[in-house]
Write a structure and sequence with these properties.
The mean pLDDT is about 90. The chain contains 2 helices and no strands. It is rod-shaped and about 100 Å long. It has one domain (about 1-75). It has helices spanning about 1-10, 20-75. The protein is mainly alpha-helical.
């Protein structure tokens, strides 16, 4: 009975001194780090998407200018 109580106490995730508690804390920390990294990556993705849209617009404008200049050169 006493051994079972000790086993249950030593494996509690609420106890940061128990192996399970330390592992739980470690996993929580890792989860927080991964969530922060995900947030940073999503922000970077949004920035790249916006930049890509700007570049696509610039390409379209440059193609239009090229067509206009080609037409003028042919005249």
């Amino acid at each position: 009975q006493i051994l079972m109580e000790r086993l249950n106490q030593s494996d509690s995730i609420e106890d940061p001194n128990s192996p399970a508690g330390r592992r739980h804390l470690q996993l929580q920390t890792q989860l927080e780090q991964l969530q922060e990294e995900t947030f940073r990556l999503e922000a970077a993705k949004d920035d790249y998407r916006i930049r890509c849209e700007e570049l696509e617009k610039e390409i379209a404008e440059l193609r239009q200018q090229t067509e206009e200049l080609t037409t003028l050169a042919e005249e």
